[in-house]
Specification:
This protein has 309 residues and is α/β, with parallel strands linked by helices. The chain has a single domain, classed as Aldolase class I (TIM Barrel, Alpha-Beta Barrel), CATH 3.20.20.70. The chain is 36% helix and 13% strand. It contains 10 helices and 8 strands. An 8-stranded parallel barrel has the order 1-2-3-4-5-6-7-8, surrounded by 9 helices.
């Protein structure tokens, strides 16, 4: 068996394979926090956004806007303190270095873009290295990511059908945890979340179903989220609620409310997005969410636990 993630040391977490990480999250009983960070913007004072997120209580780190074919993380190496000075590192060590710096499992967003999507807004074109495909999923495996998240940024044209198709690819070429679903519309005219889409993700083999947190997208209420949670759990999967609508910048009281409300609905991981500052959630809101869903004791021990343990 494995330690629950909220009590695990760095040496425990980074030794876990996908199945062990999933069990460790499950054992934490709804108290795991995942922070999403943009990696291509200039961070504060020359260190990575991921280090800030880990310092304020994140258990897992998700990299956004990371091109796995040309991996670039601003602040990762000495002297690379801005996008202009940062370099692409193709030696396969960039993710391992970040894992050592933050002592947390590291994941990456890969976007299942559908070229035929019925768009509701102008499409945002992204590089090949950010799109989900067999090529990029193999690259994520080679780089050593602990998990991948198949989802869509605003306007990229990601559809639920394309997510389901890429889950199958991920399960065949990637050994880590596979998280899948939409935080918002991603620019497409279709329901963000539904029982039908969830079942398709489960049938394809998703380890974690991603859904918007109640209170972040219109017309998703507690009853609908609970239905998704019960379906996922009945099929052996976990659920991650997400704040991907800039509301991660709405303040501590909002984060506390959304944390408790979605914990009541039964989610296993609570995600906090990067849109409030455009790079990372305000760190005080990560801490507020952490205290709300697991209490000050566990919030502080996650912050204080040395990465050398």
């Amino acid at each position: 068996m494995v330690k629950r993630l909220i009590s695990a040391d760095t040496s425990d977490m980074l030794a876990m394979d996908g199945a062990q990480l999933k069990q460790s999250i499950k054992a934490s009983e709804g108290r795991v926090i995942l922070s999403e960070n943009v990696v291509v913007h200039e961070p504060m004072d020359g260190i990575t956004t991921s280090e800030y997120a880990a310092a304020f209580g994140a258990d897992m780190i998700l990299l956004n806007a990371c091109d796995v074919l040309n991996p670039l993380i601003v602040g990762l190496y000495p002297g690379e303190t801005s996008l202009a000075t940062a370099k692409v590192h193709r030696d396969g060590e960039s993710i391992h270095r970040l894992q050592k710096l933050v002592g947390r499992p590291i994941g990456v967003n890969l976007e299942p873009v559908d070229p035929n999507a019925d768009m509701a807004e102008d499409r945002l074109v992204i590089p090949e290295g950010r799109m989900a495909s067999e090529k990029t999923l193999k690259a994520a495996e080679a780089l050593g990511f602990n998990f991948v998240c198949l989802t869509g940024n605003p306007g990229t044209g990601v559809t639920n059908a394309q997510i389901a198709a890429n889950i199958k690819v991920a399960k065949s070429v990637f050994s880590g945890l596979v998280i899948a679903g939409k935080m918002h519309g991603a620019g497409v005219n279709e329901p963000v979340v539904s029982v039908e889409a969830t079942q398709a993700f489960l049938d394809a083999g998703a380890d974690v179903i991603l859904v918007p947190a109640v209170g972040t997208v219109p017309d998703l209420d507690d009853a609908e989220l609970k239905e998704i949670v019960h379906l996922a759990h009945a099929n052996g999967a976990l659920v991650m609620s997400t704040i991907g609508t800039s509301q991660e910048g709405s303040g501590a009281s909002y984060m506390e409310q959304i944390g408790i409300r979605n914990k009541i609905c039964g989610v296993d991981i609570q995600h906090v997005g990067d849109a409030a500052w455009g790079v990372i959630s305000p760190v005080d809101t990560i801490f507020a969410l952490s205290k709300a869903i697991r209490g000050e004791r566990h919030a502080l021990q996650r912050m204080a636990r040395s990465i050398y343990r």
